[in-house]
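Worked problem 6 (solution included).
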Amino acid sequence: MPAPASSASVPASSASVPASGTVPATPSAAVPATAKGALADLAGAERALADRRVAALADVPGELARLLASVAAAGAAHAYLLTEGDR
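Solution. The predicted structure is:
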C-alpha cells in the first residue's frame, strides 16, 4: 500500500501563501521557520479569503449567497482556531 503524500513533497514556492491570501505570480515569501509564524500566515490567508467571500455576497443570487456565506463563516472559524493558541 503506498504511503500517503506528505506536505514535504509540495515545493516551498507553492506552499507559501502571504497574509494577503493571494499567491504572487513569482512567490517571494518563504515558508516561516516557526510553527507560530506558519499558523499566523495561514490564519491571515483564511481571514483575507473569508473577507473576499463576504464582499462577494452582494453580487450573487440567493442560494449561492447562502452557500458562500457558509463557506466564508467556515474560513473565519478556521482563522479563529488557528490563532486560538496565542491566547
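Discussion: The chain has three helices and no strands.
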